[in-house]
Amino acid sequence: MVSRKCCVVILVLAVLIASSGCGEVDNDSTLGARSVARSFVRDRLKSPGSAKFGTISATSLGNSRYSFSGYVDADNSFGANIRTHFSGVVRLHDNKTWRLENLSM
Fold first, then answer.
1. What is the enclosing helix (H) or strand (E) of 91?
2. What pTM was estimated for this model as a whole?
């Protein structure tokens, strides 16, 4: 009966793996908002290549608008690694283009 148990375990694992990553991420989502927020913040850093982002949280405000906040550790113009907290609002325009409404760093 070991082989039957093994088959059941493999089947359960296959179902879990298949269901965990299926589907495309919709641009109008908090995941999309977090991703675009990271890009907008990175564009404003002195050394974007040194950026290491912490967790970015995003909340839907309705009307395709999302607020976000988080922090990034990155080198400043003197080469010192500094933690910078940020927050802002992004909007998905025409279901294809993200626009930055506000960013505080």
1. strand 81-93
2. 0.71
